[in-house]
């Protein structure tokens, strides 16, 4: 599929450069010779080979094949200031093919990022800790916008950033003041294009007409296992055209910098559509094993490096050679970046005079802080409905109190807007204006039935400028499993969003076991850096929102009931952040029942049936927050002297940390109304009280220890995979 | 987009039917009048309205809009025997849009499945348990091939079934004996088409040229949140053509049965490609709120039902009306099905004479049992390598011992064939013969970088005929998070595959935190019905394979190390199924260290350093299997008198059930060589021994109870989201 000849230097290079400068007058007109550029390309290739060979690991092939793409981006196309990597007015670059990070690192070095010294780049795969040249790009490091690696997600991150840019532009740009007009560049390989999350994001980007998004496809037709003709024969260009994308082809992307630059210049001018630049390259070009899977993820070997260097006119005896002319070639990038930033600053100061109100709002947004006053706008406990309501609906009350008035929030759903209560009256949809459905100033996002992309897009929104957007995303809890790979990346990056996960247990009822989560909470509870909260009632829902809105560095996921729950007399929003607290019962309990979410109400009813036993009910909206409390607090909630039983309609896994016994789900659920299911699986207060009472009796004088955890509802129903009875 | 007129009966219906019977001579030539067919369609619509209205729930809209599609499938197109739903020679039907199950249930009733009485169908959303008419289709029930509901996966299940059919055909069909030639019909709505997993499967099906697969797209342009023009404007037909699919359009699918049948007839004749039939329908057609989101997932209301019935000429006062002529219309299906099966049986008996060897093999396959002798073909412990090897490589030894010789196995990877050791010498790839890469008899599958589809396809293979295929699927453990929604469905269905999850912890090293699982095991451990095994060495790997190969009703997932581990003197394959056992140390331990996988070796070294303490090391390859052992066994492994510490380089969540303290990961990982990481995060035997020894000293005379679990490595490294230090 790819064609290449490393010596086939484009005959039109210089003319094309001249042309380019006409169309991009902001790029300093500093021509370089074709020879120089080929030398730069070859230097990158040899450098990649040396960098992988030194520690015999890493991914050399893409760096070598896509060297010219890297040059086009960092030398000719992207606006950025290496002396201030977080300059707000910059273009943003997402390396969806994260394993090719070495290309990015080399570019960051050449283009003048202070921290990206040659020694820093040489720490790639080094046997040491805290290397800036991590195995995949990490958001913590200058010049990296988002952490990537798990394939496909980077495309969705870039879509989120493009949405961010479009929305800010619609909100803040004024005639003569294009304060937000950067492009989002995303580099994808063959892998990201195969992943479902990439496809979801591509489809949505086309729908939304995000013309600030340019997807640069390093189409080398090779993955780890060799040629992708083995498993992928889509016509990607035609496929993206069918999804409302502009497609520009480049047929020799390994060396023809002129064509790449021309394609990128053209992409910048496309209106109303995102653009795919489909660039054919040869992976590992110049290496003996070019165009094979082995050059994707393995160093070339000493002999391979020698072969490469000889072919490219480098001395095989020397390593990490960067001719001075190569540095000269990149010389302009620092000054240019400073000039761009200064120009932008000047525009901003005029903008402040011309449009003081929007400027002030933009400044507030740039601070990354929510507008003040949100906490007091939440309904107080005495203002909450006294009739039972689903916690998903209580969450809607919090949502409507804080979201409409603060432009920081964007909110949407994977096709369940009304079930998850994340829409509001008078909202504008974020849509392509020509659709007639909304415009880019809208803050209501319709993600479509694309849960994984939704959350990966949320990551892009959150990463655009820390704190400038607070995305709220929603679907049924079960489908947060589809989104889990992206939520994990959020936690890893320390970004913030709020996830609304409704219909959170067998309480979803008639939709049956396919929609009833049993084991999903356990992933989210084990995940470092994510606030996983299951509130018991409307008051705890307010506490969950407060916790999430105060925590700038972690995503929060609330799981919420479909079914109504009463407002509990003992519930307290201020105690949610403690993780657990006594919500009912005496000061000196003999028995504690810990429950979460909708099961707290059942636990309180159970406690009453267990009288005259002195039973405390503990609501535990967040295990992780409880674990962080001092022992004294933990022991005041769950006294050592008391027996403890956990009640939760999910798998028991993880509960033995707190409880001597538990009432949990041991199978998948079923199709039936929620009350019928709670009965069937044993969660009626009567059954719970009976099972717990008998067990407590058995434990008298012989308190269970570690290793004795008893599953009090085990055997309540036959194993799901025994022949299933059914009625006809 | 859709156009419709419920009275616009196609003028060509009867001629077309005549024509149809010419092209499908096996359908009894029993003409029905256009009036009768419209009555059947209308009856289904009123029935759907009544069935949803009775319990005020369910999904009426699709049933009403797609009634004619249902008739086309069950009356004209599909080969099946309602009197023997599991007749092997049948076509298979997958309802990817599982929420439309009521359409399937009504069709199963009309076409004569004994268990699907009208009362059975009326149990849809009934307030009772064990209803056959579950909220989404469930594999346990006659006429349902696979459990669906979470969108998009059904398409991938159907792709798996089509691969199964193709492969069996290539292996067992002989001239004049098309013993496996059924079609796989998959009905999808707008939701499945948006989901990434659906897109992944579509891409692979096109690549493989699965011409036994027909995707019937009920294109009503409406989802829960209303028109999909809000979020999805792909040209789906063009998109699928770009992925090597044939596309046939039907423009009035709500009523024009003739066109639907003609399209399906044509689809059956397409060679070398799967076919999409893009059928425009009007959701909830005839209802007042037709063509809206509300008719998708809500009953019509009494008034709505009255309106519908009046419009369709039914008496609003009567419910569940099925005119006798409607039953007459379906009368032929039972006898026809029996005749088809008898014909197939006759062919099979001739086939047995003509091709006794392949017939015998096919019979073995149909038994759903593995060929005998596999256990003894596994290398014994004394034959295992004595040098340290990665457990992923040990798994490759087991794989090569059992897989090549038994045609039940198919094996593949999401682009990591060689890293996961699931290929073998002399294998044939499962490929379209014209690709030149393999043929349909191949058992080596290249899934592409499509983890979610891989496992959902595995479910389709496993569901084709229980036990006939044992799919082995592989990728890095981290990317089993992408596949988790499909793995959950496997467990729910009680199907079998073996999942190979390599590079299972920080031992992946330089690839960094994006590739290092911390919290993923916790989902799989909590999931009911899945064998999650983390073997400690090559011997335990053999035990894991034995466990998986003996367990016909559950999927098994092995997590395996990238890095080498030694063969442990105390390891024992026969004890893997016990979940945990003492692998090192004295009979009367004061202290037990439980570890899993590669950490067992470290625990043994730690135990030695803790001398003179009497320390036992327990290997716990499976928590769930251990939990199922009697208390006496559990207490023999972890005596009440001993202190217990867990050591595992994942999050500690879940370990307090067994241990008083733990050594775990509290943050995400990092990019560095694996040894460096184990050191940094505190997993060196020296550090472990120091931390554990001090803690054991503190515990003297005061054994920790439930609630006292101590994280001995907490604070070992700073919180990941403190400002990250890095070196340049």
Automatic annotation (TrEMBL), chains A, B:
Residues 1-31 are annotated as: Disordered. Pfam families: Transket_pyr, Transketolase_C_1, Transketolase_N. One of its GO terms (molecular function) is transketolase activity. Mg(2+) binds at residues 190, 220, 222. Thiamine diphosphate binds at residues 99, 149-151, 191, 220, 296, 479. GO terms for biological process: pentose-phosphate shunt. The active site is at residue 451. The record marks 59, 296 as: Important for catalytic activity. Residues 1-10 have a biased composition (Polar residues). GO terms for cellular component: cytosol; nucleus. Residues 389-567 form the Transketolase-like pyrimidine-binding domain. It is an enzyme of class 2 (transferase). It comes from the Eukaryota. Its cofactor is thiamine diphosphate; Mg(2+); Co(2+). Binds 1 thiamine pyrophosphate per subunit. During the reaction, the substrate forms a covalent intermediate with the cofactor. Coiled coil: none annotated. Keywords: Magnesium, Metal-binding, Thiamine pyrophosphate, Transferase. Substrate binds at residues 59, 296, 392, 419, 503, 511, 515, 562. Its EC number is 2.2.1.1. InterPro entries: THDP-binding, Transketo_C/PFOR_II, Transketolase-like_C_2, Transketolase-like_Pyr-bd, Transketolase_bac-like, Transketolase_CS, Transketolase_fam, Transketolase_N. Belongs to the transketolase family. This is transketolase. It comes from Dioszegia hungarica.
